[in-house]
């Protein structure tokens, strides 16, 4: 990391961040700042340099959030067979629902709090564990897995690493219930009626 990385000044009530031509680069809301460039940042903005991430005047999130660093956000990773989810935030009682990463295993480090994690193997056997700060867990490539913060008061923070610049994420609720798969096709294997499928689809569907 550079000795001088970025400058932060307050100008008339506004924070201004300047990239001091740092070796590792400076990102504002996951977008790289040109060397020497200065930009104003508002409350809630994320400033990233090296392994450090700062949120400007932000309140803790109320829902699970993830920040990704893959080839899409950071083109220098193309061909490097590596990507990160440098900050996964789990407010009290929140869940990252069952999902898969089709092109990579996931190595998760719990930085703060506690977190219940698990995956299901190809024989439908569930492997689960409650992690404490400092614990690590590996989710094998392509297998369905989840993260859940069961603590009713405290948040959990994790860092994840992947062995692909484009690990990909397939969320089961989103894939099944926010796409145009026919209701009858879903109702039969789940052994529920079409009305229930329609209710499920109405729940997680993104707002227009």
Automatic annotation (TrEMBL):
Belongs to the germin family. This is Germin-like protein. It is found in: Secreted, Extracellular space, Apoplast. It comes from the Eukaryota. Keywords: Apoplast, Glycoprotein, Manganese, Metal-binding, Secreted. Mn(2+) binds at residues 99, 101, 106, 145. SMART domains: Cupin_1. It comes from Salix purpurea. Oxalate binds at residues 96, 101, 106. The keyword Hydrolase does not apply. InterPro entries: Cupin_1, FHA_dom, Germin, RmlC-like_jellyroll, RmlC_Cupin_sf, SMAD_FHA_dom_sf. GO terms for cellular component: apoplast. The keyword Disulfide bond does not apply. Residues 1-33 form the FHA domain. CDD domains: cupin_OxOx, FHA. One of its GO terms (molecular function) is manganese ion binding. SUPFAM superfamilies: RmlC-like cupins, SMAD/FHA domain.
């Amino acid at each position: 990391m550079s000795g001088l990385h970025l400058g932060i000044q307050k100008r008339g009530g506004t924070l201004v961040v300047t990239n001091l031509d740092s070796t590792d680069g400076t990102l504002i809301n996951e977008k790289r700042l040109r060397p020497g460039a200065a930009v104003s940042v508002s409350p809630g903005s994320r400033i990233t340099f090296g392994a450090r991430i700062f949120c400007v005047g932000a309140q803790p999130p109320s829902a699970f959030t993830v920040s990704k660093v893959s080839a899409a956000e950071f083109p220098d990773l193309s061909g490097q067979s590596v990507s990160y989810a440098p900050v996964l935030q789990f407010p009290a009682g929140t869940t990252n629902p069952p999902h898969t990463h089709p092109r990579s295993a996931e190595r998760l480090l719990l930085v703060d709090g506690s977190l219940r994690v698990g995956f299901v193997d190809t024989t439908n056997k569930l492997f689960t564990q409650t992690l404490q700060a400092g614990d690590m867990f590996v989710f094998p490539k392509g297998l369905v897995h989840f993260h859940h913060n069961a603590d009713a008061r405290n948040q959990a923070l994790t860092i994840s690493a992947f062995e692909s610049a484009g690990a990909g994420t397939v969320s089961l609720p989103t894939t099944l219930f926010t796409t145009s798969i026919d209701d009858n096709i879903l109702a039969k294997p789940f052994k529920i009626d079409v009305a229930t499928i329609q209710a499920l689809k109405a729940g997680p569907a993104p707002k227009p």
